[in-house]
Amino acid sequence: MHPRNPIAGLGGAWRSKGLIRASLLLVAAAAIAAAASAFGIARDYGYLHASILTGSPGGHYHALATRLADRAKREHGTLTVISTAGSIENVSRLANNRGGCAEKFALVQDGTPVPADARLELLGRLPDPESLLLLGRTGHIFNTFGDLRGKSIGIGPEGSGTAYLMRQLFEDPDLRALDVHLSHHGLLEQAQLVAESKLDLAAFVMQEDAEFLRTVIRQHGLDLASPQDLQGLIARYPWLSLGRIPAGRYDLVRPIPAVDKQIARLGTLVIASPCAQRADRIALLMLLGAELPGFVRGNPPSSTAPATVLPLAPEAHQFFLTGEPEIADRYFPWLVNLMSPAYWVYLVMAVTVLFNALKAFSRFRLWRIDAAREKLETALKGLVDPGLTHAQMRAVPADQVMAVPERRTAAQAIWSDW
User: I need a labelling partner for 363 at 20 to 30 A (CA). Which of 91, 124, 310, 397 fits?
Assistant: First the structure.
């Protein structure tokens, strides 16, 4: 058997390599598509595994987080609700990473101090503000702050946002002189202590329609205390606003309250730790948007209290612009955790440019090889038999082509020039 003519194999070899490369690219694309479909989140929150710090059981934070967790669970996600003393503890735990990156989110009162180096980020503000309510025994009237001189007030658990806010308010130079005694208690405990005349007032920060408030007011015979000069105090704190509780809000028969009462209101913030990945943040934003219809419309917050100045998370900024996650966030959470969708666009562009450059280079090499082959064939035809066609020349056995030293020398000269 004669060895095959090497000239005839040049083009075929390169065509075979091109087919192999194309096949490999198709296999890689199929593998990526399969992986994407396996990790996609178009149907559920199966990728979500996070926890959220709330407050005391029965409070608004805990109730809202429980509803979010139930919604996530229905779609195969996991959002663990963790009860805490309140906002101060929540910020401390996220900032110190006490949960080993398991604790990723928290609900906190606006005005809660956040350390400058905590690296926490703001995801948004809840659409409905909370109310600061002072509950006392029915018939005990506090018309002004001056009536509170020497009185005792329960301000909730230590580490709660309520306790911090009350201490902040009563540090006001005008109120400090009243010698009001502030003490820490559980929510139910301090309501009971007021009913037993062991406390004069109990402070609560929660939604005004919370079932807890209705229950303790009716069970212990409590009523709202609302100093007439409350507006003057609230005006000193820009993140607080003035609200109103209508007469009969908690009992229409007695009624409680007997007349409209002024109250202080403040916002609730959703914050994220540095451990919370982009996909987790987007998932929580989607849950909040689905559970609270006014959440997207009321965000991003125009401002927060000076003590709670936090940067708005990039994920939240994008989410509030469109009201929905980007395609990459929805379908490829495992990719966006590695890199933001914007950078994936740049990466795809770079890969496309590189791929096109490689294709152009391959075509150029093939062109040079074809040109060299034709040059070699033409030269060797003259040495073997000028009357042969190119097809006939390729059929000549290699040993006959290279048997003559002059032919070998000519072939070597052509390849060295190429």
Answer: 397
**312 - beta bridge partners?**
122
Judge whether 126 and 296 are in contact, CB under 8 Å: no
Sign of CA dihedral 213, 215, 218, 221: negative
Q: 59-118, pLDDT tens digit by residue?
A: 888 999 999 999 999 988 899 999 998 899 999 999 887 656 778 999 999 989 998 888
- Is beta strand 130-137 parallel, antiparallel or unpaired with respect to 222-225? antiparallel
For residue 128 the two structure tokens come to: 């409905």
pTM, full prediction: 0.67
pLDDT tens, residue by residue, 195-231: 999 999 999 998 898 888 999 999 999 999 999 999 9
CB atoms within 10 A of CB 24: 10
DSSP code at position 303:
-
Q: How far is CA 296 from the centre of its chain?
A: 14
- Are 262 and 208 contacting, i.e. CB atoms less than 8 angstroms apart? no
Spatial distance between the Cα atoms of 264 and 132, rounded to a whole number of angstroms: 5
Distances, alpha carbon 57 to alpha carbons 53, 61, 255, in Å: 11, 8, 28
